[in-house]
């Protein structure tokens, strides 16, 4: 009979996950259908599909999109890619502007996305287009891999999803479970608060596994094949790839049943694992491969020994491997997320290398090598973590909580991310009524803040204070932590929290001294200089009595700021250097103002030591990025925006400002951003003639003018004065500065309402145009006083001579200013002095004015200051010069690009990812993305492949 005849054939070819029926997701699909039914009735909303890598998120989204189209709905589909984050809003624009029915106004949206400083208008335009489309029928917007979305996509998504909630628009997004960037975490929190529905995808059941195995292999599996399939532990992608790798060689169909040909097959590479490995940096890839070769769970110390590096040097690679979902934490060790992942990585290594690494690990002293772990549950890494959790006692296990707190304290200086997680775990294990809980809260707040979770940190502290029942010492510690957090976002809030903590009765001298030190910092940053000096004096006594070196480091920074306000810059530098040295010696985790070196960089920049300031800032960015200190990195980026502006690197300054842009849920108005990146963005817009962007930041300045912190009000007033002068209203510009100049003398800005010494000539020019001769004379007198008090700083002498030359309409001091500026890297200040000297000469000696104008033009052109370039060209034409001077600093074959944009383009054209290019140039990936985005726009290209072809043509003539 035919049923007994043995027939043998290989499994069918070409069958992959995209062609197999969707199995085991009936409940999830039913939920999607319910939401589509509601959408058809005019009810919008948000659905978040979440799950680990390979669990089938993308497949659920594809099925939902198909179901929407079957109902006649308009569907937009977009997806993020880890290597394509340089295109702002790329994933969302891909969805709404491509396909059969793109949104109207596509080119307008693309232009806004590619133009720096247009976020507000882009959000408005995209929102209007979606509202218009929704009036004609329900919309389904699908966005995959949210964890890889750029910041602008995240901002646009959660802003529009909330703002368009009354309209028939369903937002269906997928995100990887587990560790995600802080911006993604913030977005998830925001949509959760907006009422998003969650759809968590778990492992498939036995029936679904058997059905998928039959789909892939073309016949029902026998028990041996099913046991092999069970090794995927219900992860669809791993299951399909595992079976797909075997069907040609290791599986045959006999009598209608799929069987293994020769017993259990050897481990093989899996496509999804190979892709994830390829996306890692070289260091992270080596770490993962080494861990796979050793086998089992491993300690970081063992990996460091095998790789010949220190444990601290592996921080970034470990974090990258965890973020890629290849490795997971298992107690104090690392384990692979899944044993199949480990085997797939190991399969890609040569056998001699695997044997050598295992032999080396075995030769290490006892206790340093990893011990194998049995894997018997879903996801090996997760199973290990679960086992570790199961071995712990329940909440209230004080010993375990103490251990976690100790671990967090030890990790805080070099790895704040893992430290924050351990501190949170300790908090979970500590009962609400435990006497030590407030201390754990106070320890956790700064760790969350440092790792980019400021909103969560603030909520944690506010909840503890609102619950009440705190002793004075505990309350003071929590308020101190909140004051530290607020320094970045709300200067007045930092003052309020520190003052409240310092005023509590019965606190220890150490806590009181630190609270007073933090209060002095807050007052100094707020611009309340007299009060800061008074509080600092009291804090010194308290800190000295307690022997607290941490408070001493912070208070030395305040002393430096006080000396700066008095124009005693040599003393200010001396104190700043001492403060930075003290903070460095103590360790950054103990610093009350993170980090003190920020002030040293700003001080160096303001006094003309710009190269030194830039070096300090770049080192700060590098170190904090390596350590995972998100908050400190943003603060350093904000600081560098100011430095780059003054050096005339307008494109770079704008890129840094965009990279460090505040998140929408930052706790407070973002005062540090007010006095750095918002100010910088306005100045860049004025230099480049970008009126729309300038008006947007002038609106921010109007808000700043009513802030509780005097320094923010002063910045706002100066920004509005600059804007009024730009608009040709010098009288209005002077009126904007009236409030600053009538503020208490003790708190008045040291530069007569200015932000920087180089602004003195700007104010004089502005005042003279308004007929405010007395105001101009006042600015000159202060500039000259500052120069006399600090004779070792030629930059200050240059600004004083420049201002005097303008006031007296005298060529001699203007020429002196030009000479003094020659050795100073303040490009825009030097160009301005050259232009003013040329203008004075042009009145009577036009030929002599031309070299001044041409040098100024070259400097402005190198800076990308298009508005200034146009003005000087008009002056040259008036002087009889008709030729078009060259723009120095740009490669002949790339006239559209700045020097930094060109470096980025050439690296990308060589095949480097954004992250690799960022590492090569010592920039942040966000900054590289900004440069690349502008290069794409200037060169009119839309893909890396097109950019590479253009680079070969221009650079090599191919």
Outline the structure in words.
A hairpin with a 2-residue loop joins strand 9 (327-330) and strand 10. Helix 18 (398-411) runs antiparallel to helix 19, helix 31 crosses helix 45 and helix 43 crosses helix 45 (925-939). With 958 residues, this protein is mainly α. The strands form three sheets. The chain has a five-stranded parallel β-sheet, sandwiched between helices. The protein has a three-stranded antiparallel β-sheet with strand order 1-7-8. It has 46 helices and ten strands. The protein starts with 7 loop residues before the first strand and ends with a helix. Mean pLDDT is 82; it is low at 1-18, 366-396, 745-753 and 884-891.
SSE diagram, text form:
Elements: E1 8-10, H1 26-40, E2 45-51, H2 57-70, E3 74-79, H3 90-97, H4 106-114, H5 119-134, E4 139-144, H6 151-163, E5 169-176, H7 182-193, E6 197-200, H8 206-217, H9 223-230, H10 236-246, E7 251-254, E8 257-260, H11 271-278, H12 282-294, H13 300-307, H14 315-323, E9 327-330, E10 333-336, H15 339-347, H16 351-363, H17 380-390, H18 398-411, H19 416-429, H20 437-450, H21 454-467, H22 472-486, H23 491-502, H24 509-526, H25 529-546, H26 549-565, H27 569-586, H28 597-606, H29 610-627, H30 630-646, H31 650-659, H32 671-688, H33 691-704, H34 710-726, H35 730-741, H36 759-769, H37 773-789, H38 794-808, H39 811-821, H40 827-842, H41 846-863, H42 866-878, H43 899-909, H44 914-921, H45 925-939, H46 944-956
Parallel strand pairs: 2-5, 2-6, 3-4, 4-5
Antiparallel strand pairs: 1-7, 7-8, 9-10
Helix pairs in contact: 1-2, 5-6, 6-7, 8-9, 8-10, 12-14, 12-15, 18-19, 19-20, 20-21, 20-22, 21-22, 22-23, 22-24, 23-24, 24-25, 24-26, 25-26, 26-27, 27-28, 28-29, 28-30, 29-30, 30-31, 30-32, 31-32, 31-45, 32-33, 32-34, 33-34, 34-35, 36-37, 36-38, 37-38, 38-39, 39-40, 40-41, 41-42, 43-44, 43-45, ...
């Amino acid at each position: 009979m035919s049923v007994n005849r043995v027939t043998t054939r290989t499994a069918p070819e070409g069958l992959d996950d995209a062609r197999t029926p969707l199995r085991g997701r009936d409940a999830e699909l039913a939920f999607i259908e319910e939401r589509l039914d509601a959408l058809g009735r005019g009810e919008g909303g948000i659905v978040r599909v979440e799950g680990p890598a390979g669990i089938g998120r993308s497949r659920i989204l594809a099925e939902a999109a198909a179901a929407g189209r079957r109902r006649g709905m308009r569907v937009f589909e977009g997806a993020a890619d880890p290597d394509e984050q340089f295109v702002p809003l790329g994933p969302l624009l891909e969805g709404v502007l491509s396909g059969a029915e793109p949104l109207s106004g596509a080119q307008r949206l693309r232009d806004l996305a590619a133009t720096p400083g247009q976020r507000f208008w882009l959000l408005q335009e995209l929102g209007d287009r979606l509202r218009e489309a929704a009036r004609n029928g329900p919309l389904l917007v699908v966005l995959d891999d949210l964890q890889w979305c750029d910041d602008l996509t995240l901002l646009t998504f959660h802003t529009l999803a909330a703002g368009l909630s009354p309209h028939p628009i369903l937002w269906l997004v997928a995100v990887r479970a587990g560790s995600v960037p802080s911006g993604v975490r913030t977005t998830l929190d925001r949509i959760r608060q907006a009422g998003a529905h969650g759809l968590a995808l778990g492992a498939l059941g036995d029936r679904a596994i058997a059905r998928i195995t039959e789909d892939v292999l073309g016949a029902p599996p026998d028990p041996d094949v099913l046991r092999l399939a069970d090794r995927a532990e219900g992860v669809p992608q791993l299951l399909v790839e595992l079976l797909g790798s075997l069907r040609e060689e290791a599986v045959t169909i006999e009598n209608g049943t799929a069987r293994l040909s020769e017993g259990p097959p050897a481990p093989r590479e899996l496509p999804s694992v190979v892709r994830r490995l390829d996306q890692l940096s070289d260091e992270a890839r080596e770490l993962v491969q080494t861990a796979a070769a050793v086998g089992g769970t491993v300690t970081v110390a063992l990996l460091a020994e095998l790789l010949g590096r220190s444990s601290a040097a592996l921080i970034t690679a470990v974090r990258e491997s965890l973020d890629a979902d290849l490795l997971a934490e298992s107690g104090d060790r690392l384990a692979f997320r899944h044993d199949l992942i480990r085997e797939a990585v190991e399969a890609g290594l040569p056998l001699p290398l695997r044997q050598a690494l295992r032999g080396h690990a075995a030769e290490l002293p006892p206790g340093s090598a990893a011990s194998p772990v049995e894997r018997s549950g879903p996801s090996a890494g997760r199973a290990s973590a679960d086992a570790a959790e199961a071995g712990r006692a329940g909440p209230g296990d004080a010993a375990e909580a103490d251990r976690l707190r100790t671990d967090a304290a030890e990790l805080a200086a070099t790895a704040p991310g893992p430290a924050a997680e351990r501190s949170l775990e300790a908090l979970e294990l500590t009962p609400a009524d435990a006497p030590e809980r407030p201390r754990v809260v106070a320890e956790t707040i700064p760790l969350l803040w440092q790792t980019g979770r400021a909103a969560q940190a603030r909520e944690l502290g506010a909840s503890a204070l609102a619950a009440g029942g705190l002793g004075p010492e505990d309350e003071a510690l929590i308020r101190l932590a909140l004051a530290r957090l607020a320094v970045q976002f709300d200067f007045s809030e930092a003052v309020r929290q520190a003052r409240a903590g310092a005023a509590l009765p019965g606190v220890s001298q150490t806590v009181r001294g630190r609270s007073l030190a933090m209060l002095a910092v807050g007052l100094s940053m707020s611009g309340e200089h007299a009060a800061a000096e008074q509080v600092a004096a009291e804090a010194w006594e308290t800190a000295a009595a307690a022997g607290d070196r941490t408070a001493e480091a912070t208070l030395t920074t305040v002393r430096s700021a006080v000396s700066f306000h008095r124009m005693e810059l040599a003393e200010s530098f001396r104190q700043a250097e001492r403060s930075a040295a003290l903070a460095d010696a103590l360790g950054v985790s103990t610093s009350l103002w993170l980090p003190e070196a920020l002030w040293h960089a700003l001080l160096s920049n303001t006094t003309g030591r710009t190269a030194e300031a830039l070096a300090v800032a770049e080192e700060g960015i590098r170190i904090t990025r390596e350590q995972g200190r998100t908050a400190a990195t943003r603060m350093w980026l904000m600081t560098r925006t100011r430095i780059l502006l003054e050096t005339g690197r307008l494109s770079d300054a704008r890129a840094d400002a965009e990279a460090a842009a505040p998140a929408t849920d930052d706790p407070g108005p973002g005062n540090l951003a007010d006095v750095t990146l918002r100010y910088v963005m306005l100045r860049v817009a004025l230099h480049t003639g970008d009126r729309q962007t300038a008006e947007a930041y002038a609106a921010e300045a109007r808000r700043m003018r009513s802030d509780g912190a005097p320094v923010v009000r002063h910045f706002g007033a100066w920004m509005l004065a600059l804007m009024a002068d730009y608009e040709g209203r010098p009288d209005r510009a002077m009126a904007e500065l009236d409030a600053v100049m009538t503020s208490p003398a003790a708190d008045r800005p040291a530069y007569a309402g200015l932000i920087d010494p180089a602004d003195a000539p700007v104010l004089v020019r502005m005042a003279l145009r308004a007929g405010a001769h007395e105001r101009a004379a006042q600015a000159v007198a202060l500039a000259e006083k500052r120069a006399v008090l600090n004779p070792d700083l030629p930059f200050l002498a240059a600004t004083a001579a420049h201002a005097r030359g303008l006031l007296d309409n005298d060529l001699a001091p203007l020429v002196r200013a030009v000479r003094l500026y020659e050795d100073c890297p303040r490009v825009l200040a030097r160009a301005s002095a050259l232009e003013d000297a040329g203008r004075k000469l042009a009145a009577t000696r036009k030929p002599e004015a031309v070299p001044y104008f041409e040098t100024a033009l070259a400097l402005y052109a190198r800076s990308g200051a298009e508005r200034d370039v146009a003005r000087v060209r008009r002056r040259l034409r008036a002087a009889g010069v008709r030729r078009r001077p060259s723009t120095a600093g740009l490669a002949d074959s790339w006239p559209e690009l700045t020097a930094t944009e060109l470096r980025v383009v050439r690296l990308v054209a060589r095949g480097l990812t954004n992250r690799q290019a960022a590492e090569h140039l010592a920039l942040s990936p966000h900054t590289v993305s900004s440069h690349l985005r502008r290069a794409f726009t200037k060169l009119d290209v839309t893909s890396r492949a097109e950019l590479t072809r253009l680079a070969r043509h221009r650079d090599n003539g191919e």
